[in-house]
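Hey, resending since the last one bounced:
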Amino acid sequence: MHAEAGYVEHMATNRYFDRTFGCDAVKVLPGEYFVTTSDIVLVTVLGSCVTACVRDRDKGLGGMNHFMLPDNGGELGVLSSSARYGAYAMEVLLNHLLKLGARRSSLEAKVFGGGRVLASLSQAQVGEKNVDFVLDYLETERIPVVAQDLLDIYP
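The structure tokens again:
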């Protein structure tokens, strides 16, 4: 992957062998994403963050992102090109899938997170904003959500 001006690659690099599932796995941390054509487990831990798992159901490729906020609040600069923000995280994930040959008409998504896990975060409604963003984004892009686990009190 080549870095372009203002573009920072956020591909997850935390690979390990998952003994529970008996296969390779990648842990996707906040601000990261991962795309693969391999049969591999993608893992993350969420609180108020959201992850979108998007796959081409016909071609056997897919990926996951993990974002903390819907957008950067209008700030400009390198931070706006950060996978910490949903707007960028979704674009990076979808563009990478399409670059690998995914067909937009075959994409489907599963979304998780947006939990109300800390009283201090519930005031800002961070989880709710993340959930609203990802569901609106996927609806706009006409990518069906086939499963979701959102807005609970558990990380």
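Confidence is low (pLDDT under 50) at residues 1-8.

Sorry for the duplicate.
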